[in-house]
């Protein structure tokens, strides 16, 4: 965003310079036309005069000034063309940066959506894990009660004796058979 603002500011400055240069060019062309009119008027006057030498000197001076103004107009036109080119390049760069910003925003939005999906999945898995632990605790409790009942039933007969040590599940199974 800072680069875009900077480029837009440069674009405005270049546009202002472009307009100023165009105005200067128009003013110089107007001056050139006025000088050409003056030159023609002076030329008409001098033709009627007999002083050929003064007439030629004035014509030479006017021609030199005319050439100087034409050269200045040519330079201004060249600067104007360069500034138009620079303005076009800056506009292209601004468009490119705007497209990049838009693409980055879309990418961030997709990442955010993916993160939300993953967060939702993680919460679902945590909930399922909790349910599985609760179910496991219930099954374990039921299994322990069942085992205890089997032990009571197996060793509650009159001729059986209590076990000397802790019995494994296999020992209990053997005794039942």
From TrEMBL:
Gene (name only): Ccdc27
Ranges where the record places region Disordered: 158-177
Coiled coil regions in record: 18-45, 73-128
Keyword field: Coiled coil
Lineage: Eukaryota, Metazoa, Chordata, Craniata, Vertebrata
InterPro entries assigned: CC-FHA_domain
Regions of compositional bias (Acidic residues) in chain numbering: 167-177
Keyword Coiled coil appears in the UniProt entry: yes
Top-level taxon of the source organism: Eukaryota
Protein name stated in the entry: CCD27 protein
